[in-house]
Amino acid sequence: MNKKKVCIIGLGYIGLPTAALLANCGYEVLGVDTDSKVVETINAGNIHIVEPDLDKFVRLGVESGCLKSFSEVQEADVYVICVPTPFHEGGDIPQPNIDYIVDAVSGIARQVKAGDMIILESTSPVGTTEIIGSLLEKAAVDVSEIHIAYCPERVLPGKIMLELKENDRIVGGLTPESSRVVSNFYRDFVTGNVFETDSKTAELCKLTENSFRDVNIAFANELSLLCEKEGIDVNQLIQLVNYHPRVNVLQPGTGVGGHCIAVDPWFLVARYPDDARLIHTARKVNIHKTSWVVEKIRSAAFDFSTNIGKKPKIACLGLAYKADIDDLREAPAVEVVRQLISQDYEVYCVEPNISSHNEFRLLDIYTAISECDVIAILVNHQDFSHGDIVERLKIVKALDFCGTLTPS
Hints:
Elements: E1 5-9, H1 15-24, E2 28-32, H2 36-43, H3 54-64, E3 67-70, E4 78-81, E5 87-88, E6 95-96, H4 99-109, E7 117-120, H5 128-138, E8 147-150, H6 160-166, E9 169-173, H7 176-187, E10 194-198, H8 199-230, H9 234-241, H10 264-271, H11 277-308, E11 313-317, H12 332-342, E12 346-350, H13 365-371, E13 374-377, H14 387-395, E14 399-400
Parallel strand pairs: 1-2, 1-4, 2-3, 4-7, 7-8, 9-10, 11-12, 11-13, 13-14
Antiparallel strand pairs: 5-6, 8-9
Helix pairs in contact: 1-3, 8-10, 8-11, 10-11, 11-12
């Protein structure tokens, strides 16, 4: 197909890699972000987030003239919405906030023309794509002449540039024709399969994928609580259980974080509060696991104070929401550190994937082990699993909440 002009709205962890990939595939890409520093950084050929190979893709895209960034929506043939979908504050069940999507649609409405595509990639409540159509109609746009669809991202941080191209995609249009047209756009640069469906099914598909993972992690986290009561090593137990040919229990951790697994289930619970009971319970289990970790660290700190007669220095190893990335969004380790600090503990953090933090005091791993009194491993970074470090952590009897000290 002829290369179209693409406007990517939102240049974060999904929008910028998508923009950079398309630019390197020969599309004219117009990136949009409300943060002027992000716009300036990208236009200089640099990046504001950490992701393998992204810097190379952005630099080449800018140097070729195919990637440019702006602060407002630009006229294009394809509009891809990659903005955040946070929650409204308050309430027992978080309620999705689609204000950023509404703002993006407002900007698109001033530019869109017949034959254009509008694609929503942001994780969204079921029915959001239909809302986009309604918003455009209110703005006097003839939606029968444009193609509106939902296409959720399915990428793993650390492998985004590879998976954007290779992973299968789901495209759900407001009409079968929209599904077909938008699917053909993705087939031009995606080597995986592109499956066509309707918008609601595609929206629910995205939420289901991450809710499924949340439920399975909750099982592992709950199992770790039971094992602790029995004095059983949960990681060894899981290794033995998984020798069963039809069982694959996941590894427990500090909780669940990130922009997907810790968030997406709430979209279903908010929409179906009386029916999404298992999904709701899984969310509670994973949130409780983080509080449980805090209590275990507090207990170790109390024992130290009782035996030594002074308050301990606490080292928390890992802040990211998963191993070997720099992304701290919804990270349970961050919540652990905040709770400890709020209770007047002296806390230091070791996070090898960031150079500074405006809220926490950072140390290198060796200083933390030698100078701190209570050490808690919160994220299973590779940097913590090197032979000499593992031996040091065992000697100081570090609290291991993610299996770093368990032989594989």
